[in-house]
Amino acid sequence: MRLATVALLFSLTTWTASGFSQTESETQLIDSDQTFPATPLVKAQSEFWVKIFRRYKSSAIVIHDPEYVDIIIDVVDYDSFKQKYNNGRSFNRNEKRDILNRYVERYQIAITRLQKIGKKALEYGPMEQRVLQVYSKRKETLSRLFTEEIYLRTQQGLSDEFARAAERADSYLPYMERIFRNRNLPHELTRIAFVESMFNREALSKVGASGVWQFMPNTARIYMTVNSYIDERLSPLKASYGAAMLLEQNHKRLKIWPLAITAYNHGAGGMQRAVRTVGSSNLDDIIRRYKAGSFGFASRNFYSEFLAARQVYKDLYEEQANTHKNPLKIDHIRLERPVSVHQLITQTPLKKEILQEYNQCILPKAFANKHRPLPTGFEIIVPQELSAQVRRSLKQLRSTTVARGDR
Fold it and tell me: By mean pLDDT, which of 146-155, 203-212, 307-316, 321-330 is the weakest?
């Protein structure tokens, strides 16, 4: 590790904390309404995620309490550090890890000192002072500081990624919102895709969730086609039909959107167990009192992240969004009979590259197998400019096939 980085690490014992001025900025307000209410704890969580989505770039790591996420201890900003301590040179991955670990470890020491010797710990320096300052904001957090074990969590900023996601989303949201409105669902539910994947259509989780809506294979098969030839999770538009149906079913079972949206992450059955266990359908009560191992940080924060994504997109991007009803200039064509990918490529104006570009859900195996047909009712997405020609070709293909079958 370079000497500049070493100096930065050891300066922690005397240097004032890195992100205080950033973390004390004004609070972002979360719009609350009857459809998507923000109860006190949810509101505090959501305001934290607004900062993550809107204020802090990916170069910044926020150190915070995992139970009261709005208790931000510090912000480690590598871009700022490289200018102050490293002559403008970017830190490598190992250096970043060492810097962050040292900060977290030092704050953990500060928490332990405060818990053991109280205010006498303030004599050790600014880290102890900062910890007491942020936990003194509310009675419940001050009580937590002196009565509970606290293991700090880190969260990377996402403001630059959210901006890129908003650009990607603008191409898909008009179609996705229409799908949700057609089922009489709030169109803003489509903002869940920011939380799930940041509208990355190639997103793939470690456990196998795929696409912008991050469907697991078994769940996806209930609502769409998923096999070795077709995986409709990979189509942002087709997967939106499945997401709308799943959220609709969640709402029918759980009655209110805070629970139904949380169930998108934790499962409707899991949320029903939470309600029964806690004896309340108030999400604040569930977050605080439901201790099931599977109800972890992601589940506890899922609805709050949705509210934050909804707010940030509304405030920063919605007015600038592409208002055209068909921004991708596409058309959907439903197959009236089984047709192979080979037939589409050889007997319609669609070239292989076009079919792949507009239909990510058709897998390579389907392109390789000349005889395996796409099923009746399957929708292909085509460029609007080719739609009429493709329809005529498919009609001719059907007529030819029928005629041959009659002989």
Answer: 321-330
What is the chain's mean pLDDT, rounded? 91
Q: What angle do CA 228, 174, 385 make, to 5 degrees?
A: 75
Whether the predicted pLDDT of 31 surpasses 80: no
What residue type is assigned to position 276 of the chain? R
Rounded average pLDDT over 85-90: 91
In sequence order, the 6+-apart residues with CB closer than 8 A to the CB of 103 are 12, 18, 63, 74, 76
pLDDT range class, residue 406, cuts 50, 70, 90:
very low
Tokens 């990607």 found at: 168
Domain boundaries, given as residue ranges, for the chain: 3-25+59-156, 161-320, 330-406
State the CATH class of domain 161-320: mainly alpha
Q: Say if residues 53 and 28 touch (Cβ distance below 8 Å).
A: no
Give the largest Cα separation in the chain, rounded: 97
pLDDT at 196: 98
The predicted-structure confidence for 6-28, as pLDDT tens digits, reads as follows 455 545 544 444 555 444 444 45
